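Hi all, posting the design record for the shared folder.

TITLE: backbone redesign
STEP: 1 of 1
STRUCTURE INPUT:
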């Protein structure tokens, strides 16, 4: 049975399904969902910060050391990466020279068994988050944007209709259905505006806050302050082989489906302790110092470069990509400090 047949069977049996349920099929079906074969990488569908190069991982290792020192240099310190994909970030971090290396336990959470196959042997790979972490960091880079979300459309009278997925003449299509129970807790004066309701992202944050006793939760993603105040166009996007589209019912299972993260929806769980752009956050972690060292290293060895010198030259370009305010540099870094 193909993925589309699975979706049609579900709809014919139970009626129209929510957009979030459709996303679970399209992205996370174990054999035919997008993450069973697609994902991040230059030869795949999109580039995330870890795929730019090892510099991002080196800077995250600085964040790990900083938190470890802040919490008194404990003998056991966990770094839990949620949505670890093929393990690109883990490889970069574990190659870095960290003060907390002997105390560090790296846990990679990845629901796709296919993606987990390439994780480093020194990490603990889990399909779901553990029950508790005494002290450490829970980290999610570009995860919350494609956790399943529902979609609602504003109406002339201030009410909302839910965008659900149905089958019409054997084609998978949309339908609008009243659903006041799950609608956004605000009204919009403008009709026919669609917004995401990100309950899975809220649940992820609640779970992370429950699991972590001491440390930090760090979320990096493209985000808006609030869909209530920022009626952004084209927030619903798909990615396939580095091409961006806005039609999630096309190429089902072959494209990533994503949205901007609504910070106000996460703040209803607990407001973030800190919000910065990725560009500023990386600078605060010592980006400019690392790049300056890379420039000096390249200058010294450019005439006869070894692997270290080539990595140094690469780091200069990586820094530009990671801080580009028209791209990755504009992403928001949301932090929650947790102390029991």
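Okay, here is what came back for every position:
SEQUENCE:
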């Amino acid at each position: 049975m193909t993925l589309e047949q699975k979706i049609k069977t579900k709809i014919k049996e139970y009626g129209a399904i929510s957009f979030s349920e459709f996303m679970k099929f399209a992205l996370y079906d174990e054999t035919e969902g997008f993450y069973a074969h697609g994902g991040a990488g230059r030869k795949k569908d999109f580039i995330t910060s870890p795929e730019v190069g090892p510099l991002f991982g080196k800077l995250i290792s600085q964040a790990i050391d900083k938190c470890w020192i802040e919490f008194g240099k404990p003998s056991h310190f966990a770094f839990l990466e949620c949505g670890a994909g093929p393990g690109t970030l883990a490889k970069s971090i574990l190659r870095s020279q960290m003060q907390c290396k002997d105390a560090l336990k790296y846990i990679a959470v990845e629901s796709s068994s296919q993606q987990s196959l390439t994780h480093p042997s020194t990490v603990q790979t889990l399909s779901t988050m553990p029950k508790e972490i005494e002290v450490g960091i829970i980290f999610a880079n570009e995860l919350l944007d494609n956790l399943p979300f529902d979609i609602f459309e504003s109406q002339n009278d201030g009410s909302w209709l839910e965008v659900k997925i149905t089958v019409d003449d054997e084609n998978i299509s949309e339908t609008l259905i009243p659903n006041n129970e799950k609608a956004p807790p605000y009204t919009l004066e403008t009709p026919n505006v669609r917004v995401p309701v990100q309950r899975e992202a809220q649940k992820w944050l609640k779970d992370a806050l429950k699991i972590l006793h001491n440390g930090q939760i760090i979320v990096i993603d493209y985000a808006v302050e609030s869909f209530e105040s920022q009626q952004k166009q084209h927030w619903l996007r798909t990615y396939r082989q580095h091409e961006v589209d806005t039609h999630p019912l096309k190429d089902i299972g072959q494209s990533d489906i994503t949205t901007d993260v609504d910070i106000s929806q996460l703040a209803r769980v607990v407001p973030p302790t800190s919000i910065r752009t990725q560009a500023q956050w990386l600078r605060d972690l010592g980006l400019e110092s690392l790049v300056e060292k890379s420039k000096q290293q390249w200058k010294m060895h450019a005439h006869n470069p070894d692997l270290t010198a080539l990595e140094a030259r690469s780091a200069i370009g990586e820094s530009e990509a990671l801080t580009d305010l028209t791209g990755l540099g504009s992403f928001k870094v949301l932090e929650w400090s947790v102390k029991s």
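COMMENT: The chain has eleven helices and 17 strands.
Let me know if anyone wants the other runs.
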